[in-house]
Automatic annotation (TrEMBL), chain A:
This is Ketoacid CoA transferase. It comes from the Bacteria. Gene3D superfamilies: Glutaconate Coenzyme A-transferase.
From TrEMBL, chain B:
Transmembrane segments: none annotated. Keywords: Transferase. SMART domains: CoA_trans (SM00882). The keyword Transferase applies. This is CoA-transferase. Coiled coil: none annotated. Pfam families: CoA_trans. One of its GO terms (molecular function) is transferase activity. SUPFAM superfamilies: NagB/RpiA/CoA transferase-like (SSF100950). Its EC number is 2.8.3.-. InterPro entries: CoA_trans_fam_I, NagB/RpiA_transferase-like. The keyword Transferase applies.
Length: 261, 296
């Protein structure tokens, strides 16, 4: 087996979120999620619906960055139609919140007091609507306690499994936060009361490291595994989808896929 | 002789019709197709205490920096390739402006409600989040039907004025948007008492000049009060397919936010006395219209 980077391992893990999703709109925001959506489309889920990141539907995933070939469009997907698709529910987005809490609530609005933030970020964007309308997963490139915070996130932008946040004290049955891929591990919401649960560790990473990097208690899968390593076929597709190697800048210091002990 | 409808006007005349305290919707999205020539005319004016509504880009940061804003209504403020808008960020971190931070889709629903002249539209968007905490005026409603579901009643966002930048317009107020995404300009126009458009090209008759692309007309001319010829009028934001955003200029704008009196430096360097002066200062309309469309 050839060498691979942690980014490439994460891309393969991220692509898995769309494996059994059928014909949903796959939206990956950021370098690794975007490559991952293309990888999923070209390998295990040929039914995925994808856009060019601008306003059109495409059937052949586009390489990131400047490219020679002109994209071929199969349909039109301006933002107004993206919202229509969001509300219809056949979408699975993979996004990167700045903070995540034990309920799976995510924040991209601001850090600190909302009235006078310490750090103002993007605003809530589409997080509220996404979280209540369709399936969502997350990619976190730097797994640490400043991201996976104790208590709640500073601004709840995407809704989560916190009963106290819901009008009648009940989390809607339709809420579906599927998976969190980080630079250390893969987690899902299979713990008690939809608690966050570690399902696989990246090669060379220990459970203690994950726990030390997380601001809340984690459940652990009875079937804890190593995150699958990229195959040659997957690596070839990743290289084709990312010819400018933007993935090298996606995780700090571009570490190798197998952590040195 | 038959009287002819002619809505052609100037940037100065449009801004002359605006008043301090107005609620103004600004079309486009982030760093794309913003009516920047009109924004610059506001920046040069004495207007203040404005409520600015939109899918925010550099126009929101600039208007904040120039002290024109009482309140912002937005889902995000971003320049995409530069994710954080620096002067918006500074205004927020100093607590200088009131805000209504919404979900992008909720903003759409609020504009739609205003355009449909109903008080609210029901939605699930916002439930379970701090959107309700930080917009305490928002109310929940219970479905009157058998499901009895609890929903958010997104209130209408009526606008005094909408400002839009389009590719083509004619003297009657017909418009065409040729970029890949018309964004929510249509909803802005419907939500507004009056809509003013700037255009890359203004012709006598769009029916004559480009009737073949009439499907790119997204809102009817009866919504349009005034048309201004403003080539390069979206600069430094993009106006695909004509030109891309000016990354170099926007980076200098971002750098200004890190300097003492940076906004004053930016304004002194670029704003100029009018739009012609501005265009000359940024390299001429020829420079603007040759800016490449970014590939993402």
């Amino acid at each position: 087996m050839s060498e691979f980077t942690l980014s490439e391992l994460a891309i393969v893990a991220c692509a898995e979120v769309w494996r059994d999703e059928g014909e949903v709109l796959a939206t990956g925001i950021g370098t690794i999620p975007r490559i991952a959506a293309g990888l999923a489309r070209l390998t295990h889920n040929p039914a995925l619906l994808m856009t060019d990141g601008e306003a059109y539907l495409i059937e052949e995933p586009l390489p990131l960055g400047p490219r020679e070939e002109k994209a071929k469009f199969s349909g039109w997907m301006p933002y107004s139609r993206v919202f229509d698709a969001v509300w219809r529910g056949r979408r699975h987005a993979l996004v990167t919140p700045t903070q995540v809490d034990r309920f799976g609530q995510g924040n991209i609005s601001c850090i600190g007091d909302f009235k006078k933030p310490k750090v103002q970020m993007l605003g809530m964007r589409g997080f509220p609507g996404n979280s209540i309308s369709h399936t969502n997963s997350m990619f976190i490139p730097g797994h640490n306690p400043r991201v996976f915070v104790a208590g709640e996130v500073d601004v709840v932008c995407s809704a989560g499994y916190n009963p106290a946040r819901w009008p009648d004290g009940r989390v809607p049955a339709s809420l579906d936060i599927r998976r969190i891929v980080t630079d250390l591990c893969v987690m899902d919401f299979g713990g008690p009361d939809h608690g966050i649960r570690v399902v696989s560790l990246h090669p060379g990473v220990t459970l203690d490291e994950v726990r030390a990097a997380t601001g809340f208690e984690l459940a652990v899968s009875a079937d804890l595994r190593e995150t699958p390593r990229p195959t040659e076929e997957q690596l070839a597709i990743i290289r084709r989808l990312d010819p400018h190697n933007l993935r090298a800048a996606a995780i700090k210091n571009n570490p190798p896929g197998i952590r040195a002990r | 002789m038959t009287r002819q409808l002619d809505k052609r006007t100037s940037l100065a005349e449009v801004v002359g019709q605006l008043k301090s305290g107005m609620t103004i919707g600004i079309g486009g999205w982030g760093p794309r197709r913003k009516p920047m020539a009109l924004v610059r005319a506001i920046l040069r004016s004495d207007l203040k205490d404005l409520t600015i509504v939109g899918y925010g880009g550099p126009e929101m940061g600039m208007l904040c920096a120039a002290g024109k804003v009482k309140k912002l209504v937005y889902g995000f403020v971003s320049m995409d390739f530069i994710p954080l808008e620096p002067f918006f960020r500074r205004a927020r971190e100093r607590g200088e402006v009131a805000v209504s931070e919404l979900d992008e889709g909720l903003l759409n629903l609020g504009l739609r409600a205003a355009g449909m002249r109903v008080p609210f539209l029901p939605t699930r968007v916002g439930l379970g989040t701090d959107l309700l905490t930080h917009n305490p005026e928002l109310r929940l409603v219970r479905s009157p039907y058998a499901d009895e579901e609890t929903l958010l009643a997104m209130p209408a966002i009526p606008l005094d004025v909408a400002l839009l930048h389009v590719d083509y317009a004619d003297r009657l107020g017909n418009t065409q948007i040729h970029g890949p995404d018309p964004f929510f300009d249509e909803q802005m126009a419907r939500a507004a008492e009056r809509t003013f458009v700037t255009a890359e090209y203004v012709v006598d008759s769009l029916a004559e000049a480009c009737g073949d692309s009439a499907k790119r007309n997204y809102f009817e001319r009866s919504l349009v009060s005034g048309v201004v010829y403003a080539p390069g009028g979206a600069h430094p934001t993009s106006c695909a397919p004509h030109y891309g955003w000016d990354a170099k200029h926007l980076k200098d704008y971002v750098a200004a936010a890190g300097e003492d009196d940076g906004w004053q430096r930016y304004a002194n360097q670029y704003l100029g006395r009018d739009e012609a002066d501005y265009l000359q200062r940024v390299g001429g309309v020829g420079h603007v219209t040759q800016l490449p469309i970014p590939v993402l």
